[in-house]
Design a protein that fits this description.
The complex is a heterodimer of chains A (377) and B (462). By secondary structure, chain A is mainly α. Chain A has one domain. Chain A is built from 13 helices and 2 strands; from the N terminus they run ααααααββααααααα. In chain A, strands 1-2 form a two-stranded antiparallel sheet. The radius of gyration of chain A is 22 Å and the shape is globular. With 462 residues, chain B is mostly helical. Chain B has 2 domains: 307 residues; 119 residues, Cytochrome Bc1 Complex, Chain D, domain 2, CATH 1.10.760. In chain B, strand 1 and strand 2 form a beta hairpin. The longest helix of chain B has 36 residues. The two termini of chain B are 44 Å apart. Classes of the chains: A mainly alpha (377), B mainly alpha (462). Chains A and B meet through helix 2, helix 3, helix 4, helix 6 and strand 1 of A and helix 1, helix 2, helix 3, helix 4 and helix 14 of B.
């Protein structure tokens, strides 16, 4: 069956903004979401492993997990932004692929609920009394960590299936009742799925490691010198593990799973600079972390540099993913071929409120700084 | 039709939207009303220097965060998940028109989350004035998100003049907006007080403190109940005629409508006689009773709001079976199987002899073996009817509805469902396809119940 015949018609309403605008906000939202999501994706597992080492690693785990409920809340809400814009700009591929795996996709909600409450149980226990850490509480942490990995597994399935239109017909034929989809499928037979799933964990480990340094330079400035020295010297180690993991998975993804046309595209003159930036920025972050590892403590200025660089790692990765996604879908239909009826006034209102919202958040955070300064005085 | 249909046995997939939505609404209203409760009462406690009340409010803020920020946020995402799966065309339509509305709502959400966490985690560490200011930011951001999302859900019930220009603001300021915002704001205040009562009856041990909580929260709850009634009446008046008629014609909705108003009045009386006039009634049993009454009222209200939209998901814009009304004339000529992306693919794959290019010859389909014709009828049922009807058991099962019907009776309804019941979508296929569907329905329809006596013939003995 020709996969293109399974593509829905364009919406008669048209796109409410130019395609590039929708994709831009999808990318901004996805990068912000990744920043937070990486911390809960690799953070709990790293935390549970570090916990066993006692001492300073335990202090870090306590710090990270006490921040985790807030990180998750922000990450979930940032995740809605790309979810919105993907439904506008890529509805023809997004809806069928989610419906084909409807039950696993739905299970994300249940898994996330348990994982989130598990994190609360875990972090509340850590805050309450570090000497008493009942096995059930630790189990809640493990359950959360595993559930987050499973959620990542399902997401990797969905977003690989979204561009793997060749599989739609096969999955549909194998999972239907009178032509209606049963929604029990996964996309694990897709060669791009496994490296794609693994790749995200490597990146997440890198982000958590960068966070160790950023936390040390900013939020943890009041921690004792011994802890700060440990955090500054330790951050590069899991970062390197993540980098090797990421590099191996990316190599598998690009050279073991991609068809030739995708490789040709990303190494073409137009996209080669982006490909190089995507590959090189994590190495730069690793180099900074190694170079600073012998210092007594990460300075706030260096922490800002690490933070910006790691954000760029994620942003370049998000843009590269977008280029690949467009190219993959472009085999079957032109993703940009929808009429545009720009909604100027709602768009302007959104941008104005967005700026006001950011301003209010900055004001609130400023109040926290003032409060801390007053307390210190 | 544009997208694959998701078959959920027994329930039907759209019922999952209803389940998740109700689970969300019970908390999302508390997220709004509870925000106002926390900031108003914290300000009061600061002003009166009531340390016990402040302690209680801090405890309540923690409970509030656990319920709203975690469960509320995730079930909110859950609604996105389910509407995309069970109503993809309606979701596509809404999001193409209102994506900036949702984007604005998410700016408010982020503000809510940041403010909620600061309000709780920096309790006692901020100046009172700053603490209260952050509480107000939370409360108004939460209400603003209610306002924006209500505009979109209200649009689904009455699109107003949107079809004239398909403009964002025409759709946003639809006739249902103000009544629904009024009712939902009232619901938020009422539900928040019920949550407070429930929480306080277990957590506030001191009698004087409990009395204070009761009396302070009674007034917003009473006002909330009144706003629900006023908003509800206005909502009814702003309904399109089809929705108002559905409300009057369907006995279940009739009963539920009476039930919801009776329940609201009962809650009002309980609040007035209880917390407002006789704070001593405040026991866990009483608060559980009044809380469950509130939950029942809200759940019923949401059910009615969803049910009266039939046959549309979005009034006059997207039908329940995921087609656009303007597609119907063409589908009646070319065929539903041909018009549907996935149904056309199925016929092309399994019955290529009936396909020429992208066209399907229905006459060829009628010449297929009976089993194949029934199978195609089943495909038509899935894509045309399963959004509202389970097959043989479950939610509004078609098997039970056609029990004992003759072939011609079924065919007559299949060809003109909107004449049999105005809240059903019209048939959107050819006459040949109607026969295919009829053959399938006749095949699964059970016989007329045996032993029924109608004055002559056999009967009276089961």
């Amino acid at each position: 069956m020709n996969p293109s015949t399974l593509i829905a018609p364009s919406s008669p309403i048209g796109l409410p903004a130019p395609f590039w605008f929708l994709v831009l906000f999808k990318l901004i939202g996805f990068t912000l979401h990744m920043t937070m999501m990486h911390l809960w994706y690799a953070g709990p597992i790293l935390g549970l492993i570090l916990w066993a080492r006692g001492g300073n690693p335990r202090k870090f785990v306590r710090r990270l997990m006490s921040q985790m409920p807030i990180i998750i809340a922000l990450g979930i809400n940032f995740g809605i932004v790309p979810l919105l814009f993907i439904q506008v700009a890529y509805h023809k591929a997004f809806y069928p692929s989610t419906i084909l795996m409807a039950w696993p996709w739905m299970s994300v909600i249940l898994l996330l609920t348990f994982a989130y409450y598990g994190i609360y149980i875990y972090s509340t226990a850590l805050k309450a009394d570090i000497s008493r850490f009942p096995p059930l509480t630790r189990a809640a942490g493990w359950v959360s960590a595993v559930f987050f990995i499973i959620i990542g597994f399902i997401f990797a399935n969905e977003f690989s299936l979204m561009t793997n239109l060749d599989a739609w017909s096969r999955i549909w034929s194998a999972n239907n009742v009178d032509g209606a989809v049963l929604g029990l499928a996964l996309n694990i037979s897709d060669p791009t799925f496994w490296p794609r799933w693994l790749l995200m964990f490597g990146m997440a480990l890198m982000t958590v490691s960068a966070y160790i340094a950023i936390d040390c330079g900013f939020l943890g400035r009041k921690m004792e010198a011994d802890y700060r020295k440990w955090a500054t010297g330790f951050a590069y180690k899991p970062y390197l593990v993540g980098l090797v993991w990421y590099g191996a998975a990316a190599a598998w993804y690009m050279f073991g799973a991609w068809p030739d046309d995708l490789r040709t595209l990303i190494f073409s003159a137009s996209w080669l600079p982006l490909t190089i930036l995507t590959a090189v920025t994590p190495v730069i972050v690793a180099a900074i972390l190694i170079a600073t590892s012998r210092k007594e403590a990460m300075s706030p200025r260096l922490a800002v540099v690490v933070g910006i660089m790691q954000f760029l790692v994620l942003a370049f990765n998000a843009v590269s993913r977008q280029v690949v996604q467009n190219a993959e879908l472009g085999r079957y239909f032109d993703v940009t071929a929808e009429q545009v009826k720009t909604q100027w006034s709602p768009m302007i209102l959104f941008l104005v409120l967005f700026v006001i919202g950011v301003g209010i958040i900055i004001w609130m955070l400023r109040q926290l700084t003032i409060a801390k300064q007053e307390q210190a005085a | 039709m544009h997208y694959p249909w998701w078959y959920v046995p027994f329930l039907t997939s759209p019922m999952l939207i209803a389940i998740i939505s109700v689970l969300h609404v019970l908390v999302s209203h508390y997220a709004v009303g509870g925000g106002f409760f926390l900031v108003v009462e914290t300000r009061y406690a600061y002003r009166t220097k009531n340390a016990d009340y402040l302690n209680y409010l801090k405890q309540h803020a923690w409970f509030f965060i656990l319920i709203t920020v975690v469960y509320g946020a995730i079930t909110g995402v859950g609604i996105w998940w389910t509407i995309g799966l069970a109503s993809p065309l309606a979701t596509e339509t809404l999001i193409h028109n209102f994506v900036f509305g949702w984007a604005i709502e998410y700016v408010a959400f982020i503000l809510e989350i940041v403010a909620a966490f600061i309000f709780f985690y920096y309790w006692g560490r901020l100046k009172e004035k700053t603490h209260i200011a952050i509480g107000w930011i939370y409360a108004w951001a939460a209400w603003f998100s209610l306002f924006v999302i209500t505009a979109i859900t209200a649009f689904m019930l009455n699109t107003g003049a949107w079809h004239d220009n398909r403009g964002f603001w025409t759709g946003f300021f639809n006739p249902q907006l103000i009544p629904q915002v009024l009712a939902r704001t009232g619901g938020a205040f009422l539900l928040a007080s019920l949550y407070v009562y429930l929480h306080a009856s277990f957590k506030a041990r001191d009698r004087a403190l409990r009395d204070l909580i009761e009396s302070r929260s009674a007034r917003p709850a009473l006002w909330g109940a009144l706003m629900i009634v006023v908003g509800g009446v206005w909502w009814y008046l702003a309904l399109p005629e089809s929705a108002r008629t559905a409300l009057a014609a369907a006995s279940v909705l009739n009963v539920l409508m009476v039930f919801i108003f009776a329940l609201t009045v009962a809650i009002f009386v309980m609040l007035y006689l209880g917390p407002y006039r006789n704070p001593g009634w405040f026991t866990p049993g009483f608060t559980i009773l009044i809380f469950l009454s509130g939950v029942a009222a809200v759940t019923t209200g949401e059910y009615i709001r969803e049910a009266v939209r039939k046959p549309y998901i979005i009034y006059n814009t997207v039908l329940g079976n995921q087609i656009l009304p303007e597609e119907i004339p063409a589908l009646r000529l070319s065929g539903y199987l041909e018009g549907g992306v996935w149904t056309r693919a199925l016929v092309s794959r399994d019955y290529p002899s009936a396909v020429s290019g992208t066209s399907i010859d229905e006459a060829v389909l009628l010449a297929l073996p009976e089993a194949d014709q029934r199978r195609l009828g089943a495909v038509l049922f899935q894509y045309h009817c399963n959004d509202c009807h389970a097959i043989e058991a479950g939610y509004s099962p078609i098997g039970y509805m056609t029990r004992g019907w003759t072939f011609e009776m079924i065919r007559s309804v299949v060809e003109h469902p909107e004449r049999a019941h105005f809240f059903m979508p019209p048939w959107a296929g050819t006459k040949e396809e109607a026969i295919l569907l009829t053959k399938y329905l006749a095949d699964i329809a059970p016989a007329h119940p045996a032993g029924m006596y109608y004055g002559s013939g056999e009967g009276r003995r089961p």
